[in-house]
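Dear colleague,

Thank you for sharing your sequence with our group. We've completed the structure prediction you requested, and as agreed, I am returning the results in plain text so they can be pasted directly into your records. Please verify that the sequence below matches your submission; if there's any discrepancy, let me know and we will rerun it promptly.
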Amino acid sequence: MNNGAYPKIIQGGMGVAVSDWRLANAVSRLGQLGVVSGTALDQIMARRLQDGDHGGHIRRALDHFPFPTMAERVWRSYFIPGGKQERDAYKLMPMHAQDSPRELKELCIVANFVEVFLAAEGHDHPVGINFLEKIQIPHLPSLYGAMLAGVEYVLMGAGIPLKVPGAIDRLARHEPASYPLVVSGVLPGEDFSITFTPRDFMECDLPPLRRPKFLAIIASNTLATTMVRKANGKVDGFVIEGPRAGGHNAPPRGKVELNDSGEPVYGLRDHVDLAKIRELGLPFWLAGEYGSAEKLQEALACGAAGVQVGTAFAFCEESGLRGDYKQGLIEKAIAGEARVFTDPLASPTGFPFKVAQLEGTLSEQSVYEARPRICDLGYLREAYRTAEGKVDFRCSGEPLSLYLAKGGKSEDSAGRKCLCNSLVANIGQAQVRNGKHVEQGLITSGDDLVNIPRFLPEGGRSYSAADVIGKLLGAPQAG
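Please find the predicted structure tokens below.
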């Protein structure tokens, strides 16, 4: 394995459009792997269009989309010249279902194309896209849209993405692809797969697409071995995320215990044996507090191709995080007051979710309690089998009466937060309800938040992606 053929730094695919095309473009221009977040890109692009497409970037990308009639349908459906009024609500789109409406599939194709196109514009370095396996329904049209734009890496975690490599192979040939939908209460022999046929959407013949490299994001040796042995196509490498990385963390193995602060306790069973990873013969990157030159060198010495860094990039000038949230947490880090809480309850998925503590966000109990329980985006809903043998969806963050009526348990709803709406609010696209209630954010960050002042220029209060890369590639400092 020639580590020199791979980037030493992968920029994490963070949040909902925190890792947007601007950040990925900046990182890739500097010779490392810029990665866009693929989470909810359909929603994000629809809201950018309703905000008036500042700078005309979406329009410019759509002019390169290979299916112009589809592009115009999306444009006409959502674009508001000059942008919507500040207190107007964003248009509600239908939620994803086992057989989503065609308009939603088209929006996924177009939005993923646009994000990757803009990330790759103006340079000839690779870009990647990151998906959460748990958000299964949009995978196939989203992957196809990203591949139409020439994405070179697909990264996926928060689940077991065994069927992604094969889907990528089929989509590259414009062939029908399927993806298994995890459904609670399914009976033996029942199949609730999702299917996608590219030729139902193509307006012209195209040559085969470039097959991107597939990197599985894992947190255990067992999952790495399973991916190599059982995936339905080629796995090109791994990102190994420890429990100190931001976003969703893999739950501790074995019985979950909480520390005095109420956070999950991780033990020896949760550490990955890198010697066994090396035996698999695939490149790997280490993630979770690897945002320093010393940790990069340590990773390389362990045989890694490099590191994935999220937190440092999440707070740089090019990231999509709202300016006031970004600056508030930078100031806390400078003052030595930054704190990240690994919340075992916040996510409707049941996975621990890392939350940066910041006044005015859902990290404050009073702000959380003041928010009405609403589920109208639905990306993290759980699919379940109804008594009639159909697929329906429930969310532990929706109104309790609805959740219970769908077979949910009251204890599973305690402390759950609406990550979908709050993560969109993090980037300045908060939904407005009844002209007055504005959704508040919930900022996720890795434990490395306390160390981001290392990237600040002397006397500065902000830093760039170039500052991060320069520090990471610099000579390790003693001490």
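Summary note from our side: Residues 18 and 100 are 26 Å apart (CA to CA).

Kind regards,
the structure core
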